[in-house]
């Protein structure tokens, strides 16, 4: 997985401007905000992969203390300009020695930031988050859904009664297949996870996709995990029902 290529993409001026202009929580984030609303005023929060400060706008005023980190110095500069009264640091979620064990009540890693690093590094991030979260705390993150991508690789699923929609879908499928020649529908069906060059930022990013049940297995060090639909914000109790969502939100608790 081209981790450095992904990092270069997130450091470009156009991408930084794009993320700095975002304002709204996604439906699943709003659901989780509402679930934790009464607890947030007492929480020490770490916002990983803060980007241009989209989540800062909502969570920072609601928590007892707030720190945002991002691996992109340009993203951090944009956050500091936008929120001069908040704390932002350059940081790598794979190793966060600046934070002691049990430092935070709530850790957020939104907008699929976990999906733009290699598999081993992804697991390292989960270990670090587990370390810095207090017992009884929460970890929330989003991740791309392999079940949805598996459907996208099937040409039959791209057909529509609307000829223009069919044309657009098939063009997207040709681009996906052309840029991921080593990946076939059969291979996707057998995979637990896959790295795919998808349409994100004009096919510039290589993205990690994982099946929900496999993602839950990766969270074995956490006590309880819930899955939420990115599109509706509703809880998904059966991972088989997650197929339509291209990405999902996971909320985990830390064992007390």
From TrEMBL:
Q: Tell me yes or no: is Transferase among this UniProt entry's keywords.
A: yes
Write down the Pfam families for this protein, in alphabetical order.
Methyltransf_25
GO biological process terms, alphabetically, are:
methylation
Q: Which UniProt keywords apply?
A: Methyltransferase, Transferase
Q: Which Gene3D superfamilies match?
A: Vaccinia Virus protein VP39 (3.40.50.150)
Spell out the PANTHER family in the cross-references: METHYLTRANSFERASE
Q: Where is the Methyltransferase domain?
A: 46-137
GO MF annotation, one: methyltransferase activity
Q: Which InterPro entries match?
A: Methyltransf_25, Methyltransf_Superfamily, SAM-dependent_MTases_sf
Q: Is the keyword ATP-binding assigned to this protein? A: no
User: What is this protein called in UniProt?
Assistant: Class I SAM-dependent methyltransferase
């Amino acid at each position: 997985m081209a981790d450095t290529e992904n990092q270069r993409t997130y450091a470009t001026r156009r991408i930084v401007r794009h993320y700095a202009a975002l304002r709204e929580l996604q439906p699943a984030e709003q659901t989780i905000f509402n679930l934790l609303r009464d607890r947030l005023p007492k929480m020490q929060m770490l916002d990983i992969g803060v980007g241009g400060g989209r989540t800062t706008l909502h969570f920072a005023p609601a928590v007892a203390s707030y720190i945002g980190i991002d691996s992109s110095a340009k993203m951090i500069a944009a956050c500091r300009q936008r929120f001069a009264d908040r704390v932002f640091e350059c940081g790598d979620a794979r190793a966060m020695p600046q934070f002691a064990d049990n430092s935070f009540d709530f850790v957020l890693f939104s907008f699929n930031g976990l999906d733009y690093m290699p598999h081993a590094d992804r697991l390292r991030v989960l270990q670090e988050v587990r370390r810095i979260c207090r017992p009884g705390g929460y970890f929330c993150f989003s991740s791309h859904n392999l079940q949805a991508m598996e459907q996208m690789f099937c040409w039959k699923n791209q057909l529509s009664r609307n000829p223009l929609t069919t044309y657009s879908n098939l063009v997207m499928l040709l681009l996906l297949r052309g840029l991921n020649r080593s990946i076939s529908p059969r291979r996707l069906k057998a995979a637990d996870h896959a790295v795919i060059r998808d349409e994100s930022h004009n096919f510039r990013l290589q993205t990690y996709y994982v099946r929900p049940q496999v993602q839950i297995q990766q969270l074995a060090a956490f006590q309880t995990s819930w899955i939420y639909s990115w599109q509706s914000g509703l809880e998904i109790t059966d991972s088989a029902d997650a197929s339509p969502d291209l990405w999902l939100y996971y909320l985990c608790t830390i064992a007390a």
